[in-house]
Amino acid sequence: MTAVRVEPSASDPQERTRSSGYEYVFPAIRGIQAGREYYVTMCPLRLIPRLFLFDEEELPPEMRAQRTLNKARVPEISRYIVENPDTYIFSALTASVNAEVQFDPMTGGVNGPGERVGTLTIPMSARFVINDGQHRRAAIQHALAENPDLGDESIAIVLFLDVGLSRCQQMFADLNRYAIRPSKSIGVLYDHRDEMSAITKLVVMRSPFFSDLTETETSNLSARSRKLFTLSALYSANKALLEGVELGTFERQVDVASRFWMLVADQFPEWHQVRSRDVSSGEVRRDFIHSHGVVLQSIGKIGNALIRQSQDEKVWEKTLSKLANIDWHRANASTWEGRATVGGKVSKGAANVLLTAGYIRSILGLELPPDEQQAEDGFIRSGR
User: Fold this and answer.
1) Fewest Cβ atoms nearer than 10 Å: which of 59, 314, 332, 375?
2) Count of CB atoms situated within 10 Å of the CB of 282
3) Contacts of 124 (CB under 8 A, 6+ apart)
4) Residue 3 located in a structural domain
5) Which pLDDT does position 263 carry in this prediction?
6) H or E, element range at 19
7) What's the N-to-C CA distance of the chain in angstroms?
8) Does residue 169 carry a pLDDT above 80?
9) Cβ contacts of residue 176 below 8 Å, gap of 6+?
């Protein structure tokens, strides 16, 4: 493509001059939704910050077309791009343009492919507004500052023709109306880049016990589910177990985690009763707290200290055998209320993990680390 500028890039939309002024010319595909035309095109990443705006001004919500930008998310998304230049993937940005556009189809029969593919001409005075993808847009801008070479890559753009704030706001509402964030469990299952996800999946897959009792798609177990654990809970538990521990190889980490969790499983006869169908998993989850994420993560933290002290499985077993001295019934409110439960319901907040881990650690005869000791002191001062 040609452009009215010095050293134009062949991957850029054309910038050209007509009698009406400067214009962008995009290769595009034309479609129809709800009787309205829209267009799909590609745009080099380096043009995204310049072309596609996000109204970040300090305006009240009723005067904006999108939610406020969560700036804490931008570096994380940007880092994902920069650290994975060969494997990152982004879905299309959705934007609206407030100008009269001209679509010139390729030659072809009426309603044929040539009528849907062509060039889209947009005045350079037009305003492009992001309707969906404002965080991706900001992250692209951030990533380009670190790695300008990314500028030659492209991203798909879905362009709607729109004039007026009310239509933009309705587009945002409609685009997000049915958006559901995938469960953390299925995120772990499908993540092939994160090492802890890979470790957790192998720990589960290689164990007939855990593979039989672990739900891999959802992070919330229904009362009728025969599963006892969720993959996301085991992920958090493994992260606590292996954090900062030097074990050498990836396979060594999988082996240590597998052996540790089977030793833990042996301390809870109810877990094995669920697998043998002697009791239902729903009953165990209802009456006991030891299969819930807050306890698994707490035991993982304790296991981290055991691994640092010794990698002798017999040493672990001697300490873990004391788990039998704990009353794990949810009804044991004098122990668990305020620690692992709040109002009788199991809670997995960071404070709950610290308090639960501190209590278990004290019963096992282990010294509490500073963060757990501080949480325990505050818990005692509060009189709970």
Assistant:
1) 314
2) 17
3) 15, 21, 22, 23, 24
4) no
5) 96
6) none
7) 71
8) no
9) 132
Q: What share of the chain is helix, strand, coil (3-state, %, to 5)?
A: 45, 20, 35
Residue 165 has pLDDT above 90, yes or no: no
Give the mean pLDDT of 220-239: 94
With bands split at pLDDT 50, 70 and 90, how would you rate the model's confidence at 257? very high
284 neighbors 270 (Cβ within 8 angstroms): yes
Answer yes or no: is 6 within a domain. Answer: no
Q: What is the pLDDT of residue 187?
A: 86
Rounded CA-CA distance 124/26 in Å is 12
Give the chain's radius of gyration (CA, Å): 28
Considering the chain, what is the average pLDDT of its residues?
85
User: Cα(310)–Cα(323) distance, rounded to whole angstroms?
Assistant: 19
Contacts of 241 (CB under 8 A, 6+ apart): 257, 260, 300, 301, 303, 304, 307
At 121, list the tokens. 């001409």
Indicate the residue type of 325: N
Q: How far apart are CA 238 and CA 249, in angstroms?
A: 16
Cα–Cα dist 43/46, whole Å: 8
Residue 206 is predicted with a pLDDT of: 94
- Owning domain of residue 90: 14-177
368 and 338 both lie in a single domain: yes
Query: In this structure, are residues 196 and 249 in contact, taking their beta carbons and an 8 Å threshold?
Result: no
Distance CA 88, CA 77 (A): 10
What is the percent of the chain with per-residue pLDDT over 70, rounded to a whole number?
84
The mean pLDDT value for 262-282 works out to 96
Please write the tens of the pLDDT for every residue from 141-154.
999 999 999 999 99
Query: What's the pLDDT score for residue 19?
Result: 44
Q: Give the DSSP letter of residue 127.
A: -
How far CA 171 is from CA of 100, 130, 164, 176, 190, in Å, comes to 19, 10, 11, 9, 30
